[in-house]
């Protein structure tokens, strides 16, 4: 049982980081895609989750070559201070422009921006906490 605890905690930190900030998704999009095309999409869910701070959850769908895709990444530089502004801007039913990679249309954003150091820091922090859990003797 003692050997399972570090692995469990490492997974919890990594999944928690992704769920709260979507940092790994943003880095993946930045590194492995070329957001070069756009289409019209529609917001189908938008809300703020309260807990230890707030986080926005904005879900949209769009169609590329007859296939429907769904995503929740607004931009690569989402900032916690923008939660209320983003939820008010992207309300359910709104039609929006979705930017996507023409070769991997499942990779998309609503706002084109550069990856920020904040997002990179969140991802590194999650990885370091995961590694700490794995290296700690239980």
Automatic annotation (TrEMBL):
Recorded superkingdom: Bacteria
InterPro entries in the record: DUF3592 (IPR021994)
DUF3592 domain span: 39-112
Name of the protein described by the UniProt record: DUF3592 domain-containing protein
Organism encoding this protein: Microbulbifer epialgicus
């Amino acid at each position: 049982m003692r050997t399972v605890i570090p692995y469990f905690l490492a997974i919890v930190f990594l999944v928690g980081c992704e769920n709260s900030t979507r940092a790994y998704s943003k880095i993946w999009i930045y590194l492995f895609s070329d957001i070069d095309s756009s289409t019209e999409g529609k917001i189908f869910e938008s809300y703020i989750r309260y807990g230890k701070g707030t986080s926005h959850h904005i879900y949209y769908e769009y169609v590329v070559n007859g296939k429907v895709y769904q995503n929740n990444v607004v931009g690569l530089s989402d900032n916690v201070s923008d939660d209320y502004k983003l939820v008010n801007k992207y309300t359910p039913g709104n039609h929006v422009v979705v930017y996507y990679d023409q070769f991997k249309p499942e990779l998309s954003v609503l706002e084109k921006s550069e990856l920020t150091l904040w997002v990179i820091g969140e991802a590194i922090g999650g990885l370091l906490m995961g590694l700490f859990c794995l290296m700690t003797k239980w």
